[in-house]
Amino acid sequence: MINLKNLEVWFITGSQNLYGEETLRQVALHAEEVAKSINNAKQIPVTVVYKPIVKSTEEIFDTLQQANVAKNCIGVITWMHTFSPAKMWIRGLSILQKPLLHLHTQFNRDIPWNSIDMDFMNLNQSAHGDREFGFMVTRMRKDRKVVVGHWQDEEVLDQINTWTRAAAGWNDWQGAKFARFGDNMRFVAVTDGDKVEAELKFGFSVNTYGIGDLVEIINSSSDEAVKQLLDEYEENYNMSADLRRGGAKHQSVHDAAKIEVGLRKFLINGGFKGFSDTFEDLHGMIQLPGIAAQRLMAEGFGFAGEGDWKTAALVRACKVMGAGLPGGNAFMEDYTYHFDPQNSMVLGSHMLEVDASLASGKASLEVHPLGIGGKADPARLVFNVAGGNALNASLVDMGNRFRLIVNEVEAVEVENDLPNLPVARVLWKPLPDMKTGCAAWIYAGGAHHTAYSQNLTSAHLLDFANIAGLEFLNIGADTKLDQFRNELHWNEVYYK
Description:
Number of helices: 15
Number of strands: 18
Largest sheet: 6 strands, antiparallel, barrel
Structural class: alpha/beta
Shape: elongated
């Protein structure tokens, strides 16, 4: 269970000693009220912590240095209640390593027309105090999120919510470990990439572990642990009688449960946040992990097939960002097209491993031949995915930078039975339309593997990309192919 309330965002208010004790006391009271109000807002998933106002170079440096080393602090929100000369911020900003949101607000929403005087003006100087601060952040070429509006405005709170979720996803990557069982699927390009550069840039590590190490743990799984898991299967999923205990095909389900017990133990004992595997390297395993991967993803682990560690990491980040929101995030693949001119759609799926957090209704546990990998028939969860707004996100290695591509889509209810396709199924219409969306994705170099999200928006992924220093490309309702291709050309110049 991912609980974002355990994470903190520090609320830091700038001023200076010029104004005198009484004004600074008011600044502090106002700042504390704003911080507490944001913390209590229903939209905000993290804990917003008020910090004493900062009035000097030393106080600013000390506070931001503490933010860097505070384990639960995932970012800082700054606000200049009064004028705060920005040279005071240089030392602190130069060492700040946490994501930054600049809230351009003021304590009062409205101008008190009949009573406003110079005392009021001196106290409420955000209109130009924040511009002074903003200049210095820009001058120092530091990325940040700027949110403008009154602190009680719902739109402002929604933007802060989006950014805090992105900051949580980024924080989760720092020091994260992803296990790769086997190597990349042979000869495949887009799922490969520079793991050293990824660790330098993103803070997570990817290392390969021999499938034999995993098999040893799987084989040592206790009968009691497997029995408990089989009880869960029978309680939570639709299952035919031949798959239940005593049934003719129950052994396949038992073997799958044993794999899940061992795989979970390997990941938890190793402190991993996600993993990938490949059907080309299953030595010693009875079947390819199907339901195991699905259920571990549903618990919050990142996953992608065929050695695709980038997508596994992205799925994990999306699960963190979407924690507590209705809907799910899962590994996905564009599998095949429905090219009806009046109703073009993509059928998304994977051989086995799309997790049931996306399911519309109760999933069925089924066992069928796979036709690839040369192993026993694997158990998997079969279900349809609900319609509604969603997105696909792809993280690719462009050689000189990583690129995050997002396509906003409209998922469509699956109306056909698909009796011979026993996998998870989702239909979607790429925005702005099938031809433009698919062409833009291909021009951008988007992968066939994606993180599919029902509860995140392109705004979450944009904030995440800005924090992570990723090139970001969005394909949505307003995308025009000629303009999109120009953006790709401009980006090439920028990143060179």
